[in-house]
Amino acid sequence: MRAKDELGVHYATSTPGNAIAEKCSILLVNDMLQRSYTESISLRLGKERKERLIEAQSSLISLPRVDCVLCSTDDSLSSLHSALTGFISMRGTLWYKWAALSSIDRLLQPGRLLIVTSALHRLQNSLVVLLKDLNEKALQASVDSVRRGGRVYAAQRHQGRSENYQDESDRLWAEESSMLEGALKYGLEGVAPARRAEGGRGRRVFRVITDLPKSSIVGLVTRSLKTVNVSEILLDRQRRERPDKRANPLADSVPRVLQEIDQLADEYAAAANGGVPLTVPGKDVKVDEVHLYEDTQHLLAMRESLFDAASFPARHCALLGEHMATLRVTTYVQRTIGRLEFELSSDNLTLSQDYRDKLKVLKTLGYVEAGNMVSFKGRVACEIHHQELLITELILESKLHSREPAEIAAMLSATTCQYRQGEGVKIEEGSVLTELKADVDEVVLKINSSAAKAGVQVNDGYEEVRYDLMEVVYNWANGMPFADIMALTQAQEGLIVRCIQRLGEVCKDVRNAARIVGDPALQEKMEQVQSAIKRDIVFAASLYTTILLFNRVAS
Hints:
This protein is α+β, with helices and mostly antiparallel strands. Helix content is 49%, strand content 10%. The protein has 20 helices and eight strands. The strands form two sheets. Strands 3, 4, 5, 6, 7 and 8 form a six-stranded antiparallel beta sheet that branches. β5 (138-148) and β6 (151-154) form a beta hairpin. α2 runs antiparallel to α10 (320-344) and α6 runs antiparallel to α10. It is elongated, with a radius of gyration of 35 Å. The two termini are 58 Å apart.
């Protein structure tokens, strides 16, 4: 026997009864998965990804490095970068969860001031006023802007979306970069000053953002604007969507709101780092939920560390922004390399998780031992090619040994039957068929329980185990003519023939498994089962072929 990574895997994915028994092969498991139909897209992209990986690795070598005493001390710049990006990522994730809490949801009411950063909307540490909490993922907010020459400029930069991102990773990178730049420029929770019309040109207007992600929240300002008339702002915005109305004066309450935002933005921008009055979840508002409390406390500890002036000597570097930009270029290439390596690895395969889950079930049932070596049970299962776990358990639990050939045929027909009666299976109580069904049910329940213990979510084990033709097969193996068989069921002739023919293949597998087990009695009994079912029209040559050959001879 070989180690796991020298083994191929043979399994079907429809039910937990389908095996994952490992078979000896010169192919690696990962090679087999990569060449499967399911992974065809990943395989086609492999060449392009390898070329991009080589190019990224080459460019990484030629990138400039930061040469600074302060930034290099104890790798301070990299440590600061890791701390900031970790804090930004965790804060963004937690805001989606915090906003669902009733204690914080009460604060997210119209008029609440927020500090937000969004590369998508060209905002960076901008002070905005909340208009509406749209759903669990997005907010609606009003942003102070400047109109000049027919264009609208946001508090920091011009209105509009950022460039089209190639994929989700590029979008996340842009958001993280904007957050990081804002933290270095204005402070971890600082506010950018209000933008004024240059040289007296332009006039103050506003724009409404209807899809502001909750992850873009930098801080929840303690203050709310009482003068905000949400309906008037939205109505004014709707009116200005018409080109002929854009030059009209603002609604009465809007200028007061814009002026107040400007004054507060300048006041907060002048405050020292950490001087903006914020409501901090976990500190000013209790977070009692168990699943959130630990993460919130961890984020608060990270926040205190970043506010500590003694931490990270690189923060005192006069060229911190320039050095951080250099590091970001290197980080981007490193992340690109890591992503490409992952996409080329087996961990990125669609079937990899399915393989790992099924391997857990195999270990729980004893088909795979420590070190991922195939056990004796696994070797037996390798001889079965349909409902492998179920049939192997029936063999090794001696469910077949004490049965007559017709009874074995009826029991195994539950794995090959493709017919389902509309009103369900009706088996006479106390009959031998009831016992056979109970034996199969017991094994299926064992397999499902083992999968549950392994923490693997699997399909219902009864999905392909059907007893609708059990009586038919039982009587057929006992010698009943096919014409009489048809009176026992409403199933079509083809379904009955197909069930019995597939049963013949299963009998061959069980006979081979009996040889592995070293059970000549079971091996002989399976030969008797084959002899009992392999007769008459069920295993006759095709009638069409026979007539065709006869016509050729006659001609």
